[in-house]
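User: Hi! I'm working on a homework problem where we have to compare a predicted structure to a textbook description. Could you give me the structure for the chain below?
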Amino acid sequence: MKKFVEKDDVVVLIDLNFRKYIVYTNGKTDKIKGVGVLNPSTLIGNEYGKKLEIGNKQFWILSPSLQDKLQSLHRRAQIILPRDAAHILMYCSVEPGQHVLEAGIGSGSLTIALASAVAPNGKIISYDIREDFIEHALKNIRKAGLDRYVSIKTKDVTESIGEKELDAVILDIPNPWEAIENVWDALKVGGYFCAYSPLTSQVEKTVKELWKHRFIEIKTFENIQREMIVSTHGTRPSFDMLGHTGYLTFARKILQP
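Assistant: Happy to help. Predicted structure tokens:
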């Protein structure tokens, strides 16, 4: 672990309200909303973990974690939140060196989580049919320093999947059931399927289609999360509970039912 910021580092600046800003030390002088005008090279030589002053504001400077990268994303489409991304990584058993396909890139949040998990010698293949989403997501992926692990294609997963022997396929599209036959063909034996769906009607169609194919361990989950607020006066649940985001449906490929 580096002790001091060096040239070409990616750092996160965290203000006193815990807002986060990802910065490249080799970037150009620019005005960063929430930070002010910053020449990133002035960060070089600062000690990680220390507090520094930029303009009239104070920031901690740290090496960015995966959570920092996700929380500082520029959102255009609705993102898959960290609690759901973590569930996907665990239930799809995503590990370093694997090849994973996702469809529906959105703002690139899940792509970043997946790329972090398969690095340094794995690959994420991402399909999307919208060029504007791809362009926006790619900016976020590059900002996270993970673009070398990601291959993006303008392609409809319900029409075909060119890759084979994939370790997992994860779908964040409105009609995942229409891609299941292609998914089965693309997965290795024992590979995992996941679909992220906001509506129960989507889940029902997906599960019914999975039943028609050679998949086992078909399960659907919803993640509800609530922070506990700890203060000198006592502890209570947060009033801002993270409620419904979407349903996660998982399955695993077999050869014989």
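For your comparison, note the following. The chain has a mean pLDDT of 91. The longest strand covers residues 187-197. Good luck with the assignment!
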